[in-house]
Sequence to fold (140 residues):
Amino acid sequence: MEIIDKQFLETAWYGSRQMARYMQRQGHRCGRHRVCRTMRKMPLVPIYQMPNTSKKHPHHKVWPYLLKRLAISRPNQVWCVDISYIPIRRGFLYLVGIMDWYSHKVLAWRLSNSVEADFCIEALKEAMAEYGPPETVNRD
Fold:
């Protein structure tokens, strides 16, 4: 498990097949199914684009993108907010960023080791305290 975890930090795109080949090259006797079971226990999921990600479900409603024809012509008109994760040795860190679309300036950001809403609210409060409230906030 330790060898798989260490290698996975360096090559997060390795699935069970590639990890099994890596282990065999290192002299360990293990097959793909054992590596797959071990990775599932840990839980390690390779980071790569899954097939058919852009196909929509026929019963899901498609919401219109309201900012499509909006001309962004001044600062503080539209902000965007996004949350992302950063893999680290023992889990993940979560990053929230708030950016002004006109100037492309990062207004505020925060890191957290949990996906609680508190750190997002703190970042939004900081941006609003420094720059005032925006007209529109675009988020996922």
Notes: Strands lie at 78-88, 91-100, 106-112, 136-139. The first strand starts at residue 78 and ends at 88. The first helix runs from residue 2 to 10. The chain has a mean pLDDT of 86.
